[in-house]
Specification:
With 268 residues, the protein is of the alpha/beta class. Helix 5 links the parallel strand 8 and strand 9. The model has no long low-confidence stretch (mean pLDDT 94). 35% of the residues lie in helices and 21% in strands. The protein contains ten helices and 15 strands. Helix 1 packs parallel to helix 10, helix 3 crosses helix 4 and helix 5 packs across helix 6.
Length: 268
């Protein structure tokens, strides 16, 4: 039995502040059956603690070590680009700031800087674009937490970090290195974080976006379970369901997937 199940968050467990019906019960049933549940998010604005708080509010027990964020992946990537104590301009939210601070970087909001990390934040404006692109043009390492163009919200798709990254890339004339799903920094972080479970077998990646969650599963060598409660809806909206190779599972939501994994209904 697969012991490790890693779930995306937006579009899988919740849409904005609203839990997707049945998702909490699904996680609790999987945990009760002996699965370790990890949470992998490209939303770099969140700290692991804030993710845990939201999980607990919906009735799911979790700890910070269960959560892997693209902000953490970006901070890990920077270890290969700049030295300890380097000045890093965070064109990003609190999740990135805390992840950089945890790695010992001096977080700044304007140059000069040794590196620039661009992550999703709702306060992005012209001045932020000016400061980030100026530092990148001056030679700072340029890291994007992720390049997802959109993410699912309660009322439909919202602009994602990819839109912010595109603005900084256009203004600076530079292409960033990307840290989040499905890139190597996240692959490495997942393997290190869940090494104990992976020593006993493969994991399963659950997500709503084939281009990130499905691609991450492929990079890890895991099966992919696609839920149609977020970016992909199975009716031609959002990202289409991939055909080659197809996901190991395609279900309407996490609750239906848990039912299939736990054997209460046959695979179909």
């Amino acid at each position: 039995m697969t012991k490790l199940i890693c779930c995306d968050l937006d579009g899988v467990l919740w849409l904005g502040p609203d839990p997707i019906p049945g998702s909490a019960e699904a996680i609790n049933a999987l945990r009760a059956a002996g699965h370790r549940i990890g949470y992998l998010t490209n939303n770099s604005s969140r700290t692991p603690g804030s993710v845990v708080d939201q999980l607990q509010t919906m009735g799911v027990e979790a700890v910070d070590d269960d959560v892997v964020t693209s902000a953490q992946a970006a901070a890990a990537l920077l270890r290969e680009r700049v030295g300890p104590g380097a000045r890093v301009l965070a064109c990003a939210g609190l999740g990135v700031i805390r992840a950089l601070e945890a790695e010992g970087y001096a977080v700044v909001d304007r140059g000069p800087a040794d590196a620039v990390v661009v992550g999703f934040h709702r306060t992005f404006d012209f001045d932020g674009l000016d400061r980030a692109s100026t530092a990148v043009r001056a030679g700072a390492a340029f890291v994007a937490t992720n390049v997802d163009a959109t993410f699912p919200g309660p009322d439909g798709l919202l602009p994602g970090n990819g839109a912010i990254v595109a603005a900084v890339a256009t203004a600076s004339g530079r292409v960033p290195e990307v840290a989040g799903k499905p890139e190597a920094p996240t692959v490495n972080l997942v393997r290190a974080r869940f090494a104990g479970e992976l020593a006993r077998g493969s994991g399963l990646m659950v997500g709503d976006r084939p281009s990130t969650d499905g691609a991450l599963a492929a990079a890890l060598g895991w099966p992919f379970a696609l839920v149609l409660s977020g970016i992909s809806d199975g009716d031609g909206g959002g990202e289409p369901v991939p055909a080659d190779p197809p996901p190991a599972y395609v279900t309407p939501d996490l609750a239906a997937l848990a039912t299939r994994l736990l054997g209460a209904a046959p695979d179909r």
